Every structure is written in structure tokens, then in C-alpha cells.
Amino acid sequence: MTRIVAYTPDFHAALLALSLRAWEPVFPRLAAEVPEFVYDTFYPQGWRQRQYNDLAEVLDSEPDNVHVALDGDRPVGWVCTRLHPEDRMGEIYVLVVDPVHQRRGIGKALMEHAAGIARAAGMRMIMVETGDDVGHAPARRAYESNGFKRWPVARYFRDLREDASPSATL
């Protein structure tokens, strides 16, 4: 039986380790789909180091926003929920389930927990963001199967190390 509890620093190492395991199949596929200069700019020391640093920062800087799914006493997933009162919106900022425990309803339980936090705070909606690449397809399916509606967004990048664009030479 999975239960969801408030984060404590005792979970720090386990949550970072399970997060890296969860994203292990995602990032190699992402690297194949985005321009090399974009991937290399975001992950100059590799995706593992960037993810570790970014997620450690979340755990360290906003522990009150983090909740942990436990199987017995073992962490098997976690969620970071942020509130944006100016938009009457909650945000699932981080959602991770250990690969060994995926497809057992843990992600759904964490999403519902986050929605409950947002609802209790008077928010009107909750959002989650993920990649549009093949590696993130399972995440998109999970969000859509849990009632999230897609908002189309396009994000473009240009390598500034390449030759100057024609408009820059005017």
C-alpha cells in the first residue's frame, strides 16, 4: 500500500537516486531529437549532473512543496507542487516515479495529491509540463489519461555561434 507523506531531508539521497533512474531512458532519446547545440548547452556536464543539481535545488529550496510516495518505508516517487495565485493555478513542477514501481498508480496518486493541494489553496486549475520528444511520450500519456488537456507551445532555439543572420549585418 502506497502512502504519501511530507518530505523530510532523510529522503534526499533516495529521491535523487530514483529520479536519475526514472530519467535514464528519456535523455538519450531526447538527445537524438533536439539540435546538438541545444542539448550540449543545457547539459554541458551531461544530463545526470544537470538533473541531479536541479532536483537537489528543488528539494533544498522548497521542501514544503515536496511530497513523497512510500511503499512501506521506501520512497518510490515524489511530487513538487507550486502555487501561482496570480493565475489561480497549481503546477506539478516535478513528478517522478521509480521505474520499478511505474504503472502501479503511484504517479496518479501523486498527481491527485498535488491537485488536492492546489484545490485547497483556492486554485482553479493545475498544470504540468513535459517534453514533446519520444522519450517523454509515457509522461504525456500519463498526464492525458489523468485529465490534463494539452496547450500547444512552440519553443525555438538558434545557435548564436553560427554565422550571423542576414538581419544582423544590416
UniProtKB/TrEMBL annotation:
<dbReference type="InterPro" id="IPR050832">
    <property type="entry name" value="Bact_Acetyltransf"/>
</dbReference>
<dbReference type="InterPro" id="IPR016181">
    <property type="entry name" value="Acyl_CoA_acyltransferase"/>
</dbReference>
<dbReference type="Pfam" id="PF00583">
    <property type="entry name" value="Acetyltransf_1"/>
</dbReference>
<protein>
    <submittedName>
        <fullName>GNAT family N-acetyltransferase</fullName>
    </submittedName>
</protein>
<feature type="domain" description="N-acetyltransferase">
    <location>
        <begin position="2"/>
        <end position="170"/>
    </location>
</feature>
<dbReference type="InterPro" id="IPR000182">
    <property type="entry name" value="GNAT_dom"/>
</dbReference>
<keyword id="KW-0808">Transferase</keyword>
<keyword id="KW-0012">Acyltransferase</keyword>
